[in-house]
Amino acid sequence: MPGRDLEGKNALVTGGSRGIGRAICLKLAAMGARVFINFTSNKEAAQKVLSEIEAAGGQAVLCPFDVSDAQAVKGAVSGLIKEYGPVQVLVNNAGITRDGLLARMKEADWDQVMNVNLKGAFNCIQACAMAMMKSRWGRIINIGSVVGTTGNIGQANYSAAKAGLEGLTRTAAREMAARGITVNLVAPGFIETDMTAGLPEKIKTGLLAQIPAGRMGVPEEIAGPVGFLASEAASYVTGHTFHVNGGLVCQ
Fold first, then answer.
1. Does the residue 5 lie in any domain?
2. Which residues of 231-245 are buried (b: 16+ CB within 10 A; e: fewer)?
3. Which residues are catalytic?
4. pTM surpassing 0.85?
5. In angstroms, how far is the first alpha carbon of the chain from the final one?
6. Using CA atoms, how far apart are residues 146 and 158, in angstroms rounded to an integer?
7. What is the count of structural domains for the chain?
8. Residue 199 lies in a domain
């Protein structure tokens, strides 16, 4: 199991203020990384994560920017690199949903989900890649979704963005492997977060009936595989989609 593998390294986690992102921030900090906690609007939640990390003896920095804004990403990341050195671990976790049936989906809802969930990952990879390649070591971990594999009614935009993230992961892995950089994707199933908390009970019951494990996952069960993929133990794992879904999809 990973210990303090990330001692002295910098890790950027997008969407790090809540849910899965928060759990990932705490995990990477426990592994010794200085964690850059990205958020867009909820500074109070991000500050709580920072306080938790510092209370446990770790290091963290608040890093507000919109991942869908390429110039904002470049500016923020270049500032981090100038002050702290290269971002050696990048976790592209930021994501939104704008659900609706495909035939009636608004163009703006399609565009917003694509811009945050897929373009946002592209923006962050591009901003961090050169410094990673120069140091010849890096870990890029994209957070996908089971629906990127299965599809889901009412989530054409979200499913397409997460499927696109898998293609981005595989291509980036091939391009960067020779420079000591691994690129992988963790695809959660249904996890207990703010995003799933609002689901009607009838839908939750239907979902649970499809999951062999008989329950939803918790954010820490996603943070664990992320920690592994960031560690030295995973140095020969790249271009892989790591499904964490309680048996909902077995591949």
1. no
2. beebeebbbbbbbbb
3. 158
4. yes
5. 23
6. 11
7. 1
8. yes
pLDDT digits (tens, 9 = 90+) for 92-151: 999 999 999 999 999 999 999 999 999 999 999 999 999 999 999 999 999 999 999 999
User: What CATH code is carried by the domain that includes residue 30?
Assistant: 3.40.50.720
The amino acid that residue 136 corresponds to is: R
- Residue 36's DSSP bridge partners are 12, 61
The answer to whether the Cα torsion of 99, 105, 109, 113 is positive or negative is positive
List the domain range (segments joined by +) for residue 35.
Answer: 10-242
Strand partners, 182: 139
The string of pLDDT tens digits covering residues 135-148 is: 999 999 999 999 99
Q: Which of 14, 82, 100, 28 is nearest to 58 (CA)?
A: 28
User: Where does residue 218 rank: exposed (0-12), middle (13-18), buried (19+ CB within 10 A)?
Assistant: middle
- State the pLDDT at residue 138: 98
At residue 2, the pLDDT reads 53
Q: Which of 56, 9, 61, 55 is nearest to 32 (CA)?
A: 9
Instruction: Kindly state whether residue 250 falls inside one of the protein's structural domains.
Output: no
Signed CA dihedral, 224, 171, 64, 41: sign only: negative
Residues of the chain with pLDDT under 50: 1
